[in-house]
């Protein structure tokens, strides 16, 4: 009979002996907020339950994928049937085609897509594709945006305008990031200057249209519009990283929202993950046919994956997307998310604590500050210590927010009005 420990502290101690830091993704370790991470035993609807049996209202949602909540009946049925038929084949399946068709029907900027297993893999492949399609080497990214842990993207800003970045991880040689330029998010003058100086050698610009790795910071419409103009003018490709925002902020994703404000707007390459897998490891990148046909086996840009288009993952993602297409889904989800954020802001105001926030669809963020940040430096200037205290106070009251002030939060269709009210009530207690 197993004598495995059942407390979070015991499990964490045990994990640290066999896993670096005791976790398989760094933010889970609670290093940013302090304390002991919760080891989750099960989940249902909008709730997660830790190893000690404590229930939490879940606003992480596996960092975004669980838009329907945990254990949705239609998704469970689809996954069970797929698992019975086989876990993995290493050969094409009809369901891969069905999922691709479903995604493409909702995102008109793409003619074709390639399925992969993670957001990092999708973003890395999109960059390779952009470089292969343009024959250029340089890429532009923005400070505070995260596109996975590929070497070329683990960079911080250089020392001056439009300078090359420096590695932010050991194991990444400086020469690997010498072609990566890091600019300030929402700074139109910097992107104009970068193209003026190096436009002939820029392969692509990659951006999180709503930066969920700065908590929740929107790219302004003038900023997106100007990037689109500059990329078109100089022959560079514009990559929208919608791993987090894809089918989370709207049925047409973030690019659909920008298209409403910028007539005719489309990115050149789009990257998706999280929601399209419904909680299973699945991601994708796509573009117009002329760009995608640069990929092997048709073209010279190589990309492959043993588990790409996994039959269980595609079943999960397809069942999830079909639920999202039902009439009124995003109206209801957006209302819930706005109700949550309004409740948090009202509680903070009552408690006399400065808090600001923003939301779109099922994604939200809040900051302890007087004004919404628009850049990474402004995010860094918000009150981190107050966030850490708030995080633990909410955790003690059964509400699970992301354990770092730099991460967005997520509402699911399973969250009820009672859950949202309970969260606002807990926030008032935590802040008073």
Protein described:
The longest helix is centred in the last third of the chain and has 23 residues, at 329-351. By secondary structure, the protein is an alpha/beta fold. Helix 5 (188-198) packs parallel to helix 6 and helix 12 packs across helix 13 (417-431). The model is unreliable at 159-163 (pLDDT under 50). The protein has helices at 8-18, 73-85, 94-106, 119-134, 188-198, 221-234, 253-261, 289-292, 311-324, 329-351, 376-380, 384-396, 417-431, and strands at residues 40-44, 47-50, 55-58, 112-116, 138-142, 155-156, 166-167, 180-183, 202-207, 210-211, 217-218, 237-242, 269-272, 283-287, 356-360, 363-367, 399-400, 409-410. It is built from 13 helices and 18 strands. It is globular and about 55 Å long. It starts with 7 loop residues before the first helix and ends with a helix. It has a seven-stranded mixed β-sheet with strand order 4-14-13-12-9-5-8, sandwiched between helices. A four-stranded mixed β-sheet has the order 1-2-3-17. Helices cover 37% and strands 16% of the residues. Strand 12, helix 7 (253-261) and strand 13 (269-272) form a beta-alpha-beta unit.
């Amino acid at each position: 009979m197993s004598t495995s420990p059942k407390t979070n502290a015991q499990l964490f101690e045990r994990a640290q002996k066999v896993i670096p830091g005791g976790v398989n993704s760094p933010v889970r370790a609670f290093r940013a907020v302090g304390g002991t991470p919760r080891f989750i035993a099960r989940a249902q609807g909008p709730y997660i339950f830790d190893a000690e049996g404590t229930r939490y209202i879940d606003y992480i949602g596996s960092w975004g994928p669980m838009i329907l909540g945990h254990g949705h009946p239609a998704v469970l049925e689809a996954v069970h049937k797929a698992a019975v038929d086989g876990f993995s084949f290493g050969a094409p399946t009809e369901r891969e085609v069905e999922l691709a068709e479903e995604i493409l029907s909702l995102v008109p900027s793409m003619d074709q897509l390639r399925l992969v297993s993670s957001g990092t893999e999708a973003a890395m492949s999109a960059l390779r594709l952009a470089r292969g399609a343009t024959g250029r080497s340089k890429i532009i990214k923005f400070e505070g945006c995260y596109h996975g842990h590929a070497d070329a993207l683990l960079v911080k800003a250089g020392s001056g305008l439009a300078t090359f970045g420096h590695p932010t991880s050991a194991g990444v040689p400086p020469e690997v990031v010498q072609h990566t330029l890091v600019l300030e998010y929402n700074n139109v003058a910097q992107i104009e200057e970068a193209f003026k100086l190096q436009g002939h050698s820029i392969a692509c610009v990659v951006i999180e249209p709503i930066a969920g790795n700065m908590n929740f910071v929107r790219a302004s419409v003038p900023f997106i519009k100007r990037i689109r103009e500059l990329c078109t003018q100089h022959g560079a490709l514009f990559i929208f990283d919608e791993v987090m925002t894809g089918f989370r902020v709207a049925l047409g994703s973030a690019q659909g929202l920008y298209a409403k404000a910028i007539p005719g707007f489309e990115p050149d390459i789009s990257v998706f993950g999280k929601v399209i897998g419904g909680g299973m490891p699945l991601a994708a990148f796509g573009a117009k046919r002329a760009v995608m046909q640069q990929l092997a086996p048709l073209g010279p840009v190589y990309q492959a994956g043993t588990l790409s288009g996994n039959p269980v993952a595609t079943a999960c993602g397809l069942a999830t997307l079909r639920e999202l297409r039902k009439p009124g889904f995003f109206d209801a989800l957006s209302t819930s998310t706005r109700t949550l954020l309004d409740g948090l802001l009202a509680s903070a105001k009552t408690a006399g604590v400065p808090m600001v926030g923003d939301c779109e669809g099922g994604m939200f963020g809040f900051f302890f500050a007087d004004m919404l940040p628009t850049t990474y430096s402004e995010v860094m200037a918000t009150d981190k210590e107050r966030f850490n205290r708030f995080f633990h106070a909410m955790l003690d009251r059964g509400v699970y927010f992301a354990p770092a002030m730099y991460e967005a939060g997520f509402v699911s269709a399973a969250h009820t009005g009672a859950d949202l009210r309970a969260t606002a009530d807990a926030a008032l207690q935590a802040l008073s």
